[in-house]
């Protein structure tokens, strides 16, 4: 190639009739600093703060939902002791309920264990008395009333406890003259004691008391557990 050639930042020297380029360091002009982009705190900070508050709120709601038990009790599974116990208690209510007329007393007696007792209470002038009956004696006394009066009683709430072959059911009851009555004419608590006999749960004792103005049923016994 002919002509002169000068590389940037180089000098030319002559050697043996040839021009040889020699590298000479040169100063590089300093470019002005670019403006360093600043973090957009004015935008991101409020968003992050709101996201944190939302996360805390969601965690609080989730924790509250997990810690508050459901107001509805778990349904008893067929074949379980709980199911058998509740079925026996419900059968007692069903057999004494109905329009005026005779009840199925054979079915009633079959629900009880040998030696079973039914105990009603009566309060007068601050004194409580108990009337102890066998299932047969209850049949005689209650049967006379049922012959001329409709009577429907159902459990409003049950609280069941069991250990081994014994069980206790605190059953809040409502009594009506007709199944269509809006309000019961009486409420109270039936205390059922049951025992396992073979494959069946039988009633050993029913001990009950009716509420009155001075002794209303506590709220805790108005929900099943």
Biggest β-sheet: count, sense, barrel? Answer: 6 strands, mixed
The CATH topology annotation of the domain at 81-212 reads as Nuclear Transport Factor 2, Chain: A
CATH class membership of the domain at 81-212: Alpha Beta
Indicate the proportion of strand residues.
25-35%
Strand numbers in spatial order across the main sheet:
4-3-8-7-6-5
Helix tally equals 4
Quaternary organisation:
single chain
Shape: elongated
The arrangement of helices and strands along the chain is: EEHHHEEHEEEE
Helix fraction? Answer: 25-40%
Description:
With 225 residues, this protein is an alpha+beta fold. The protein has a domain at 81-212: Nuclear Transport Factor 2, Chain: A (Roll), CATH 3.10.450. 27% of the residues lie in helices and 35% in strands. Strands 4-3-8-7-6-5 form a six-stranded mixed β-sheet. Strands 1-2 form a two-stranded antiparallel ribbon. The longest helix is centred in the first third of the chain and has 27 residues, at 41-67. Residues 2-10 and 12-16 have low confidence and may be disordered.
Features:
225 residues; alpha+beta; Nuclear Transport Factor 2, Chain: A; 6-stranded mixed sheet; two-stranded antiparallel ribbon; 4 helices; 8 strands; 27% helix; 35% strand; elongated; disordered N terminus
